[in-house]
Amino acid sequence: MQLWKVSTLINKVSMDNKTSMAPRLTFVLLSACMIYTGNGYKPVVYMHGIFGSYKESAGFLKWIEEEHSSTETLSIDAYNNADSAVNLMQQIQDIAQILQAYMNSHPGGINLICYSQGGLICRGVLEHIQHNVDTFISLSSPQAGQFGDTQYLKYLFPHLLRDQVYRIAYSEEGQNISVSNYWNDPHHQDLYLKYSKYLAVLNNETFSPDSQKFKNNFTLLKRLVMLGGPDDGVITPWQSSHFGFYDKDLNIVEMKNQPWYTNDWFGLRTLDSRGGLVTKVIPGVQHNYWIRNHTVFMDHILPYLNWFSMSWLQISCTIFVLVVCRVHTCSGYKPVIFMHGILADSDEGNQLLDWIAKDHPGTIGLTIDAFNRQESIVNMTAQVNEVSSIMQDFMTKHPEGVNLICFSQGGLVCRGVIEQVAHNVNTFISLSCPQAGQFGDTNFLKNFFPTYLRDNLYKALYTETGQKISVGNYWNDPRQQDLYLQWSQYLAVVNNQSVNPNSQKFKTNFTRLKRLVMIGGPDDGVITPWQSSHFGFYDSNLNMVEMKDQPWYQKDSFGLKTLDSRGGLVTHVVPGVMHIHWHSNITVYKNYILPYLD
User: Fold this and answer.
1) What does the domain layout of the chain look like in residue ranges?
2) What's the pTM value of the predicted model, to 2 decimals?
3) Fewest Cβ atoms nearer than 10 Å: which of 420, 472, 542, 563?
4) 318 versus 481: which is more confidently predicted?
């Protein structure tokens, strides 16, 4: 009966939409499958943090229900407020029963969002039982332990300094307190391994007859998303939220150099090897605000709650839809355009487009075959004029909209196109692009100006001749801003920093974007400062000024603040990636590009 209703919709849509039918038909039919056969999104379970309660998630879960209508949600009503200081082994026994019963009633799988201490509780449950958790979002959780003075700690141990807490934590009595179960003193690892009844056990750092079970159960996960950031103020070190931690000299050792990862003690490396680890470094968020920050929710949580939970009826319906779509030549994903970087060519995007074609079969891809190799140093305005003609022709053939992936200098070319034309770009992925300009000595720059030091380049670039070179168009010397504004024929123009009769058009076109995803990181080695990939840049004293404190954001010069106000800005700080590897790194692709290709 339900499939008959879907078939009726097929006939109606086919009759009513003779042109551009594919995207409408696909949307209507898949919606019908969910409407007539039940909800399609996996249920979401939330676990609160220390001294919190199940009530803290009310607003958060409401956001999920607003974005994913009819999604079932559960906030764990256990160990609320002061009860959350009870030892963690006791907590996971009770919470495991609650989760097990919930999972039994939802055999299609669930998603977990677990905050702060709750993230360690959830990991304990996951390792102890055979579960059907699809995605586990660990939201600012001390996964590698805690070692720092915080208000929470002073509440529990008011008379102890950080370096003395081990005296209580590493005792039989101390292990009855939850924080002690994951207190990880790098100066007293022998006592940590002797007394820890929770963290050392979960990490398989100490002998446990259940060690293989822990690993087997942990690797039942499809995906682990870890969120944290340097402004948290509670999780110490904050890298613990990504399984990094101090060594005995209080130097940070990142996750991939930790023994629990390199030895794969509980399955972290196994999960990573199959693309199941996602790490998000998010600055500017204090610990109490992770579950209250709408931008964090929209940009870093919601994209990972899109995996469907289907009944057999839904699966049958979906297969039926796909067969019909095949007959009607439907394509479910927007076409993707790739724009290469400086001194590269159209082949640079082939690997990315191959991966996309495998993950999203039928996606149409175009890599811009223009201004290849040495021709890429031609001034940017000339490049934008020609590339915009190619893109406009492609967009005309695909009125349903396109997605852009633009690498390095190509990201500035793409932004120029976006501001110049009335486009139909849905998502613009700016992949390590100097959006706020370039100011740094790199091997790349020395190819062009072998005899100039960074601080002297303005003498060559802020001239008529220098502006004929692409790099000169976005060279942004923070100590020569008067000359930059006088001579820059590209970056100052697209930023609406200089007088321009097209300034309103630039802003109107830019804000046609649905979403701008900015990807960059501290190990890039070419984009200088690397924060330029996120619209941050130096002041005149070479101090870093982040995007939201820059005049082009505060004044909304070209629409960046407008886009942000409606949740259209996504920022990813990804460490460990050199500039030339962004478009060929499968982890970058899987975690930071693919989720945004709708």
Assistant:
1) 1-38+312-332, 42-304, 334-444+502-596
2) 0.52
3) 542
4) 481
